[in-house]
Amino acid sequence: MSQANNKKSLQFFSKSNYTWMLIGAALILVGMLLMSGGKSADPNVFNPNEVYSFRRITLAPIVIIAGFIVEVYAIFKKS
Which pTM value belongs to this model? Predict the structure, then answer.
């Protein structure tokens, strides 16, 4: 077996797979950043508008799930 065949057989993913994996990881990171925050200046005061906003409750989980879907696609994509 030549070295070129051996190297090719050990490579599981192509460059496009890694590109899609980076896109998925970026989406997950953006979703986590969208979910962060909501710290109150006074710890004795609870502001439900900060904690239960559309961005944190709806948008961020959708972006994170989209990132996981892209990751699954990147793993199963044929080289």
Answer: 0.80
